[in-house]
Amino acid sequence: MKYTVESDVGRKRTVNEDRVAFFEHPDRFKLALLADGMGGHNAGDVASEMTIEETKNFFLNIDAAQLDSIEAKKQWMLKTIQSVNGKIYEHSLSHESCKGMGTTLILVLIDGDECLIGHIGDSRVYHFTHDNVGLITRDHSYVNFLVEYGEISEEEAANHPQKNYIVKSLGTESSIEPDFYELQLEPTSYVLICSDGLSNKLSTDEMSEILHQPLSLNEKGKKLIQLANDSGGEDNISVILLSNNEEV
């Protein structure tokens, strides 16, 4: 498994409230993590930083022998997410400057070619193969719910005034239920994990065009960030790019 991790403050912001990380367990497991923080007085970076550090501790201390099935992995991930959610929520209640803070969350637990994804908010996971692209996650946003219920079209959603309004985030309520997805990596496929600073600026065609250029994985990650900045860069931009293609 090859990976690259990139994050940029963008062209308009002064603080980067995104946090991205990739951890490798002494056993076979790996964990990709993206958190896009939100909250007044830059408290979003507190929420996303807490998410990284707390999740890292849970991950590096897992008993790999206990994660012997997909259900066991889901239970570990659920327990981890709920614990981190509780700590962020309690911190927001006890620190006035952090009141109401929260973060999106993407967790990808990697076991060989098998990926288990935990998701909260509007950060995304895409799966790119040689001839196809799939959006794996489903945004927890007001506008996405309107699309799913047939109230507005995809085209209307792209320019909706409330397109960035998230209806579920980590740390803003005392309890949380993430969505889970399973993904099997193919020999030449890519998994792209990103904050909305990227997905709001680049089409899947633009992403795919970069991923299929004869560049290193690191260069592809940097080029995705560059294109989002060239397209406005109004938000923080973060990317984790995974591949099991030995040629990149």
UniProtKB/TrEMBL annotation:
<feature type="domain" description="PPM-type phosphatase">
    <location>
        <begin position="2"/>
        <end position="244"/>
    </location>
</feature>
<dbReference type="InterPro" id="IPR036457">
    <property type="entry name" value="PPM-type-like_dom_sf"/>
</dbReference>
<dbReference type="Pfam" id="PF13672">
    <property type="entry name" value="PP2C_2"/>
</dbReference>
<protein>
    <recommendedName>
        <fullName>protein-serine/threonine phosphatase</fullName>
        <ecNumber>3.1.3.16</ecNumber>
    </recommendedName>
</protein>
<keyword id="KW-0479">Metal-binding</keyword>
<keyword id="KW-0904">Protein phosphatase</keyword>
<dbReference type="InterPro" id="IPR001932">
    <property type="entry name" value="PPM-type_phosphatase-like_dom"/>
</dbReference>
<dbReference type="GO" id="GO:0004722">
    <property type="term" value="F:protein serine/threonine phosphatase activity"/>
</dbReference>
<keyword id="KW-0464">Manganese</keyword>
<dbReference type="GO" id="GO:0046872">
    <property type="term" value="F:metal ion binding"/>
</dbReference>
<keyword id="KW-0378">Hydrolase</keyword>
<dbReference type="InterPro" id="IPR015655">
    <property type="entry name" value="PP2C"/>
</dbReference>
